Amino acid sequence: MPCAFSMISGRRVEQEKVTDALPRFGRVDLTADPPPVPEGLRFPMWLKPALSYSSELVFGVEDEEEFRKAAAEIRDGIARVGRPFEHVLDRVDLPPEMHGVGGQVCLAEEPLTGIQVAVEGYVHQGEVTVYGTLDSIDYPGSPCFLRHQYPSALPPDVVARLHDVTRRVMTRIGFDSATFSVEYFYDPGTQQVSLLEINPRHSQSHAELFQYVDGVPNHHCMIAFALGTDPAMPHRQGEYAMAAKWYYRWFTDGAVRAVPSPEDIARIEREIPGVRVHVIPEAGQRLSGLSQQDSYSYEVAHIFTGGNDEEDLRRKFDRCVAALGLAIDEPGEGPHA
């Protein structure tokens, strides 16, 4: 599922010049009523702002009715991120194909299948360095992330292909002196690699994972750029062989009746080695009032785990969920109904 800060459609134009590992895509005319489906695309497809955060206003659509409904919601909310970005566009030299496009752009893209994976790295003095590859695993039957897991479990030859595409694309777009995270899908059945999006920054969601496995958070690289020092990351010098960021989600609206206290969270982190917990809602808050949520669920806690293997990570996550004591009244139930 598309998550984080998607680059504007001009990036797709540049990507096409160095790789065919791309989905079919088209721009949606939000000024039309109703907006037409872009030529050459068929249902199902994804609709999303060209600039978005945490999958906000990102929709999977199966037919024209869902397409129109999603386009209307995107039209109503796209300015929150798109309008400020237009102030940035006013200050840069754009390629001819991007003149007049602006920051409030909606894209439709064909769906991608397989394993979602992220490649993190940086560009220093024109040289692209990749320092990590992570898997993103969804909840079963859902497009929502269950966890990010580092390092990737993909075969080494597939990881090498991802790194090659990443280096070619980041070189093509002229990126330099900063970190990045590029998201892909890999389909084991077809062996197809497809580039989903480029994030022009490292992912803060991955910071603890790199610290657990490599010994420092990925913030290290950007801080090194700021200080003018070597941005190179250490490798496998952390306390754990694997790490994961888990998204504990609720898939219906509700009112939060009870959350763990800071003392409860500190106790859980002491009792379960290699665990950090961040609870998102407050007691009495309605989930639909949370900001920056995706279109299909509500994040109620982020749980970071470091362990010896995947089973160790899962066991620690399950223990945390049981210990948190989060209580949420479903709509129509409890004192907050």
Walk me through the structure.
Keywords: ATP-binding, Ligase, Nucleotide-binding. By secondary structure, the protein is an alpha+beta fold. Strand 5 (115-124) and strand 6 form a beta hairpin. It has helices at 9-15, 64-77, 79-89, 156-172, 207-214, 219-227, 262-271, 310-324, and strands at residues 25-28, 45-49, 59-61, 106-109, 115-124, 127-138, 145-150, 178-187, 192-199, 242-250, 255-258, 275-279, 298-307, 327-329. It is globular, with a radius of gyration of 21 Å. An eight-stranded antiparallel beta sheet has the order 9-8-5-6-7-10-13-12, with helices on both faces. Strands 1-4-2-3 form a four-stranded antiparallel beta sheet, covered by helices on one side. Strands 11-14 form a two-stranded antiparallel ribbon.
How many individual helices? 8
**Could you tell me the number of beta strands?**
14
The stretches of 5 or more residues where confidence is low (pLDDT under 50) are 1-10
Strand content: 25-35%
Q: Taking Cα atoms only, what radius of gyration do you get, to the nearest Å?
A: 21 Å
**Main sheet attributes: strand count, strand direction, barrel closure:** 8 strands, antiparallel
Shape: globular
What's the pLDDT, averaged over the residues? 90
What oligomeric state do the depicted chains represent? single chain
Keywords: ATP-binding, Ligase, Nucleotide-binding
Domain ATP-grasp: 12-227
Pfam family, one: ATP-grasp_4
Organism: Streptomyces griseoviridis
